[in-house]
């Protein structure tokens, strides 16, 4: 089913398309990833740290979209991190780029069909919790899917059992074992700026109004962002465990007479500032995670 549903762009992802993309990539790389990583705004430097890199521009990969956002390089990078074979999206796709939500998650399905047993999503976010500072990292404990509540969900459309069930539980969306591991590693690395909290997903591309920020905070969210949740939903449908790490790149404006405003440059700048810490952190996580079977 392609076209519009409830006024939103809608596209059903074909299992065969995913398999064709998997085949294309398998024929061109010897890396067999067990871990998939998605780099958020300004956090793509992580992909450059992989050993034995083999990279593909999104524009050359069948069925992939192209990245249109500064800070999202648009490359799928295979390699080794922390002794494990991994695949890394150096840049992601967002709903606000005009892509149907199911379409922006095709790459997640591909990475899982390639063999990934765990997904690490990283993202940039605006801090709502007044205890959070710019440069803090937050392990995602849960999310609020605002667009999902009004019909923007990557699982809307006809279903294919080969991807997993239609009715996906999300009460365990963010794996407790991985959250605990991340906190343990942060402590070992002396990262006293690691928090754990709730991410609220809004479609973007506008930054929030003051009243929206107040509403999100009332709902219990600690940070707000424009991505990750569709990717997490698809990974959970396919039975893959998720760890989410959000970098607080700016503080959300919560007073009506503030002179400063949010902007993408600041987001990228904070990403650059925390790049090395983030790389060290994710590499340690990659080294220490264990997979069954
Ligand atoms: O891809 P992420 O979620 O890290 O990017 C955030 C949300 C918007 O794309 C952008 C706003 O500056 O950064």
UniProtKB/TrEMBL annotation:
GO biological process terms on file: purine ribonucleoside salvage
Keywords: Glycosyltransferase, Purine salvage, Transferase
Statement: the UniProt record of this protein carries the keyword Magnesium: no
Broad enzyme group: transferase
GO CC annotation: cytoplasm
Domain of life: Eukaryota
Reactions performed catalytically: 2'-deoxyinosine + phosphate = 2-deoxy-alpha-D-ribose 1-phosphate + hypoxanthine; 2'-deoxyguanosine + phosphate = 2-deoxy-alpha-D-ribose 1-phosphate + guanine; inosine + phosphate = alpha-D-ribose 1-phosphate + hypoxanthine; guanosine + phosphate = alpha-D-ribose 1-phosphate + guanine
InterPro entries (alphabetical): Nucleoside_phosphorylase_d, Nucleoside_phosphorylase_sf, Pur_Nuc_Pase_Ino/Guo-sp, Purine_phosphorylase, Purine_phosphorylase-2_CS
Metabolic or biological pathway, per its Swiss-Prot or TrEMBL entry: Purine metabolism; purine nucleoside salvage
EC number of this enzyme: 2.4.2.1
CDD domains: PNP-EcPNPII_like (cd09009)
Domain Nucleoside phosphorylase per the UniProt entry, residue ranges: 35-285
Residues that bind a purine D-ribonucleoside: 208, 250
Coiled-coil ranges from the UniProt annotation: none
A Pfam family this chain is assigned to: PNP_UDP_1
SUPFAM superfamilies according to UniProt: Purine and uridine phosphorylases
Residues annotated as transmembrane: none
Stored Gene3D superfamilies: Nucleoside phosphorylase domain
UniProt-recorded Gene Ontology molecular function terms: purine-nucleoside phosphorylase activity
Function: The purine nucleoside phosphorylases catalyze the phosphorolytic breakdown of the N-glycosidic bond in the beta-(deoxy)ribonucleoside molecules, with the formation of the corresponding free purine bases and pentose-1-phosphate.
Protein family: Belongs to the PNP/MTAP phosphorylase family.
Subunit structure, interactors included: Homotrimer.
Protein name per its UniProtKB record: Purine nucleoside phosphorylase
Native organism: Paralvinella palmiformis
């Amino acid at each position: 089913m392609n076209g519009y549903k409830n006024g939103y762009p809608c596209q059903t992802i074909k299992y065969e398309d995913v398999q064709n993309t998997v085949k294309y990539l398998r024929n061109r790389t010897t890396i067999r990833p067990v871990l998939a990583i998605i780099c958020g705004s300004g956090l793509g430097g992580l992909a450059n740290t992989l050993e034995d890199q083999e990279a593909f521009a999104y524009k050359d990969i069948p069925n992939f979209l192209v990245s249109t956002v500064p800070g999202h390089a648009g490359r799928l990078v295979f390699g080794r991190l922390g002794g494990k074979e991994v695949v890394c999206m150096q840049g992601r796709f967002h709903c606000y780029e005009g892509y149907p939500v199911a379409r922006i998650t095709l790459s997640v399905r591909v990475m899982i069909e390639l063999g990934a047993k765990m997904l690490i999503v990283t993202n940039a976010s605006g801090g709502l919790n007044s205890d959070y500072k710019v440069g803090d990292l937050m392990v995602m404990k849960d999310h609020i899917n605002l667009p999902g509540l009004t019909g923007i969900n990557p699982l809307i459309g006809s279903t294919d059992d080969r991807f997993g069930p239609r009715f996906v539980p999300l009460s365990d969306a963010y794996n407790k074992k991985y959250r605990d591991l991340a906190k343990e590693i942060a402590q070992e690395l002396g990262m006293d700026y690691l928090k754990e909290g709730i991410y609220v997903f809004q479609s973007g591309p506008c930054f929030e109004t003051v009243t929206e920020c107040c509403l999100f905070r009332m709902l219990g969210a600690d940070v707000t962002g424009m991505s990750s949740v569709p990717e997490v939903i698809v990974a959970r449908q396919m039975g893959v465990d998720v760890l989410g790490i959000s970098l607080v790149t700016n503080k959300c404006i919560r007073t009506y007479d503030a002179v400063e405003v949010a902007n993408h440059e600041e987001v990228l700048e904070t990403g650059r500032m925390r790049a090395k810490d983030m790389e060290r952190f994710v590499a340690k996580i990659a080294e220490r995670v264990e997979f069954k079977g």
